[in-house]
Structures are given as structure tokens and as C-alpha cells.
Fold this sequence. Notes:
Blueprint: H1 3-15, H2 17-23, H3 46-59, E1 66-71, E2 76-81
Antiparallel strand pairs: 1-2
Amino acid sequence: MHWRDVAWISLSISLHSEGLATRYPDGVCVDVESLAFPLSDYRSEVAALAMDGWLREELGLPPVGIDVNFSESTGSYSFTWGHGQNPFADEWPFPTL
């Protein structure tokens, strides 16, 4: 699995940390065996959305504000992360300080 996928999956799990800690006070282990998607449509952020959907469907956790919208006019996706900011910078080249 690509490191970006792992980072985004981890973010999604962390956004659900309160619900997970309440339901599983002794801890929980999430084992992701595979993540399949068409390479032509690859966006690393989708790994977070996939994990969010799985956690809500399989464990009954409430939504935490993760969402995606597609703009047909621009052909781009916009993501919402529940806390109002983009947690990672995937842009290249990275901005200089």
C-alpha cells in the first residue's frame, strides 16, 4: 500500500477516535488488507473516505464531517475534513517557507 494511502486512512481513523475509544476502551486494531481503485482516478484522499465509510457502516459510528464534492464545471474535487482544513499538502512542488 502506498504511504499516502496509509496516511489518509490513519487520518480517517483519528477523526473517529472518540467514537472508537468509547466503544472499544481497551483499543481496536484495524487491519487493511487491500485498497483497490482505478489508477486513472487515483486521489490519495479517497483512502480516508473509504475508511470513514467502512467505520460508519461496519461499526455504526456517526459521521465526522468527511465529504467530497465534484465540480463538473472545473472537473475538480473538493474535500471536507470535518475540522475545516486540509490536513496534508499533496501539491508539488511543495511551497517554500
